[in-house]
Description:
Elements: E1 2-6, H1 13-24, E2 27-30, H2 31-44, H3 52-61, E3 64-65, E4 72-73, E5 76-77, H4 85-95, H5 98-111, E6 117-121, H6 124-128, E7 134-139, H7 142-155, H8 162-178, E8 191-194, H9 200-217
Helix pairs in contact: 1-9, 2-3, 2-4, 3-5, 7-8
Amino acid sequence: MIVTIDGPAGAGKSSISRQVAEQLGFEFLDTGAMYRAVAWAVLRQNRELTDASAVAEVAQRLRIDLSGGKVLVDGEDATAEIRTPEVTQATRYAASNVEVRAHLVELQQQFGREKNLVTEGRDQGTVVFPHAECKIYLTASPEERARRRVADLAARGVPAEFDDILAQQNRRDEEDSSREVGPLRKADDAVELCTDGMTPDEVIQRLIEIVEARKASL
């Protein structure tokens, strides 16, 4: 069974989806981390983010391992580094790159074969796994998502201003929704869940209820 959880930046997809997968006993695939890993590697290699061919070349050569709750890039632990504001800003160059996207989508589909899987991203239910048995669109208001992002950065010792984060997030929402390849879009058959006012535990419980109800109907 494949469960896709799509939604905008800051909706809490990664942490929530990981815990849902653990409680269900499913594998977890953080596709956003894959695009972040490519952006991190491009920056690390001092390649030009605006050079689409260079970004694609870096992606094709990378070994990305998401096992054990860590993100290993060519064997190096980049789990923390890929979440910095610099990488967050650079990730759009990987996400909007046609060749990068085709390569990573293929890797994601390979990962999902013959496994019970919870996968999160922007286009999991629409492009990568259009025939997934359970599709969820996880969202929250822009202000709520920005507050969560500021709190997350503060917890990691990275200072950030709410207004700056909100502006960056709004730009990213526009870019994610308007790009030609793999745009952010709610699948027609997805269940939408707005998490404003909900605790993480409440969100996890609601998502598990949605998945279990879908399993029972199969």
